[in-house]
């Protein structure tokens, strides 16, 4: 595709403007580690929430969502549970509050509040640092593969996709490394506004160009139904035959089973808390525990409507106007639907804005990942064990180097990947699965100690990293129960054969965080020491709010899809569900948040 001069001008202005804004704001970031990585806990919760949403509105994920919506229709609304997307509800209801009460800078540092400062605690910190760095490389590779495939279709020069990706990486990395979290948050707010305008515009174009009758003629029976049974029962034969092959390759014929596995894995990984990435960083950067909860709620509130207007809009345009071409072509890369649809259906001028918006989505994801990971090495290894007395400016400079090395490693991995789906499945299905057991138990079982955490994490990481090598054809969801079993056994055995952690550390943790679970001996020890201590612990209310919150979030996903495909009765029903669940959460969650 040859972009018009107007489109190229819009894109160039956006890239230069983002770089200039990021570098201008960078003057706020270089004072010390706290201002560089957490912006001094001064940024308002709503700004952090929009920034977090922008970081999750990534181009590779959007390409995947469009391909899933094309293939599975309204049932694709369930598929982000594989990430799991509803982890934001667990964070919003109670986990962000628990995490923010610690007042630390990193997830590794947080472990000191749970396990103390002994040898076992140090081992825990090393394994979390390793996880943070490995997952950051995975996210960078994920973004690299997505932006390369996207850019190669639009830009007029005959350059390999990986070269395009490398050029855009350089621009983004410059302002992220220089500006720290201040640059990341403020540029991400700008990027989110741009993405929202572009996404809504695409949805409106699709509504004007595709009628419900045209869409019905271009899709098989059941495509527009959100509910599902045990089997998918979505037959594309005679419509677009190659979609049936795609469904088989995705192992999604037993759709009900896959959703059950996603829910099972998703609940456990959500209860484990956020992985050490940009999501955790924004929680720790809020001003208070109450702000942390509201920040996590803001992510779901603002992200889904514009994103799914774009997803649904590009999907139905591709179905109606590209369907016959795809059917005639046979084999087709469904991850390319998004750029092909933009290529054919978005008018001049808006194309430049939309591409700039999707570049913004990419840059947000990369910026968040690059900014979040280096603090684990700089604060928890370099400062603690090698150079504890260096100046703050030196630590910031070391973080520049670590950021650059992470980007280099991520690019190297990305070059060898074949598809977005392969890295997405590995990160969310396998790697995060290895994180679940140890981090679930750390919140909910008092006897779980630092050695249990270390060996549980090691077992999970080793098995999850080995799965793609030993059994490359195994779907990560099918592997998750075995991965979980290995991790749980390692956690429990290691905890029971080693001494319990210091009771003073445990009582301090329990007093500060106030988690629910199996904490009886610690609670008794605390109340014996401080009989008048008041502990407001509400597990049943929290879990009720989580269940309602998941329904609320799902309604926010399907509302824009029903709007774009013009199914007004279903759109109205989804809106009613959203309003009722919002009211319930207002009364039973938001009104009961306490200022810290």
UniProtKB/TrEMBL annotation:
The keyword Protein biosynthesis does not apply. GO terms for cellular component: plasma membrane. It is a multi-pass membrane protein. Its main location: membrane. Belongs to the sodium:solute symporter (SSF) (TC 2.A.21) family. The chain crosses the membrane at residues 6-25, 45-66, 78-99, 120-144, 150-177, 189-207, 254-278, 299-322, 353-377, 398-417, 423-441, 453-471, 477-497, 543-565, 571-590. It comes from Alteromonas halophila. Keywords: Cell membrane, Ion transport, Membrane, Sodium, Sodium transport, Symport, Transmembrane, Transmembrane helix, Transport. GO terms for molecular function: L-proline transmembrane transporter activity; proline:sodium symporter activity. It is found in: Cell membrane. The keyword Lipid metabolism does not apply. This is Sodium:solute symporter. It catalyses: L-proline(in) + Na(+)(in) = L-proline(out) + Na(+)(out). GO terms for biological process: proline transport. Pfam families: SSF.
């Amino acid at each position: 595709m040859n972009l018009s001069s107007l489109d190229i001008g819009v894109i160039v202005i956006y890239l230069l403007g983002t770089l200039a804004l990021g570098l201008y704001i960078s003057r706020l970031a270089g004072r010390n580690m706290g201002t560089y990585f957490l912006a001094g806990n001064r940024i308002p919760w709503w700004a952090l929430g929009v920034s977090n949403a922008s970081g999750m509105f990534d181009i590779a994920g959007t390409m995947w969502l469009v391909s899933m919506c094309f293939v599975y229709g309204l049932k694709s609304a369930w598929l982000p549970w594989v990430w799991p997307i509803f982890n934001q509800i667990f964070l919003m209801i109670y986990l962000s509050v628990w995490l923010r009460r610690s007042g630390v800078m990193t997830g590794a540092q947080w472990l000191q509040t749970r396990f103390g400062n002994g040898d076992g605690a140090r081992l825990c910190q090393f394994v979390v640092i390793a996880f943070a760095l490995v997952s950051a490389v995975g996210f960078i590779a994920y973004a690299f593969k997505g932006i390369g495939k996207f850019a190669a279709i639009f830009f007029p020069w005959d350059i390999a996709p990986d070269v395009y990706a490398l050029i855009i990486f350089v621009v983004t990395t410059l302002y992220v490394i220089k500006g720290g979290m201040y640059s990341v948050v403020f540029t991400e707010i700008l990027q989110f506004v741009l993405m929202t305008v572009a996404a809504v515009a695409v949805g409106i174009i699709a509504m004007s160009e595709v009628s419900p009758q045209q869409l019905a003629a271009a899709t098989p029976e059941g495509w527009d139904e959100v509910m599902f049974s045990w089997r998918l029962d979505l037959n594309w034969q005679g419509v677009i035959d190659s979609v049936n092959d795609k469904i088989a390759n995705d192992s999604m014929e037993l759709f009900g089973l896959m959703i059950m596995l996603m829910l099972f894995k998703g609940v456990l990984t959500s209860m484990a808390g956020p992985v050490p990435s940009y999501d955790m960083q924004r929680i720790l950067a809020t001003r208070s525990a109450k702000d942390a909860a509201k920040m996590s709620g803001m992510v779901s509130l603002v992200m889904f409507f514009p994103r799914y207007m774009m997803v649904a809009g590009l999907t139905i345009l591709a179905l109606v106007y590209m369907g016959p071409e795809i059917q005639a072509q046979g084999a087709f890369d469904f991850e390319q639907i998004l750029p092909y649809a933009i290529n054919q259906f978005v008018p001049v001028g808006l194309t430049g804005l939309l591409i700039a918006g999707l570049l913004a989505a990419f840059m947000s994801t990369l910026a968040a990942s690059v900014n979040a990971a280096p603090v684990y090495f700089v604060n928890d290894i370099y400062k603690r064990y090698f150079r504890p007395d260096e100046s703050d400016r030196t630590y910031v400079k070391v973080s520049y180097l670590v950021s650059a090395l992470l980007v280099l490693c991520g690019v190297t991995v990305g070059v060898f990947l074949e598809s977005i789906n392969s890295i997405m499945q590995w990160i969310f299905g396998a790697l995060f699965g290895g994180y679940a057991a140890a981090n679930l138990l750390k919140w909910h079982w008092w006897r779980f100690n630092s050695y249990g955490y270390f060996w549980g994490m090691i077992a999970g990481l080793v098995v999850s990293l080995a799965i793609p090598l030993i059994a490359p054809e195994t779907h990560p969801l099918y592997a998750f129960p075995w991965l979980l079993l290995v991790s749980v056994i390692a956690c429990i055995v290691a905890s029971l054969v080693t001494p319990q952690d210091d009771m003073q550390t445990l009582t301090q943790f329990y007093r500060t965080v106030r988690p629910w679970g199996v904490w009886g001996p610690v609670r008794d020890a605390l109340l014996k020491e401080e009989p008048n201590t008041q502990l407001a612990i509400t597990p049943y209310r929290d879990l009720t709010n989580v269940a309602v919150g998941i329904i609320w979030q799902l309604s926010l996903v399907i509302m824009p899809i029903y709007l774009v495909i013009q199914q007004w009765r279903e759109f109205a029903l989804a809106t009613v569900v959203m309003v009722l669940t919002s009211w319930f959460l207002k009364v039973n969650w938001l009104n009961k948040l306490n200022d810290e």
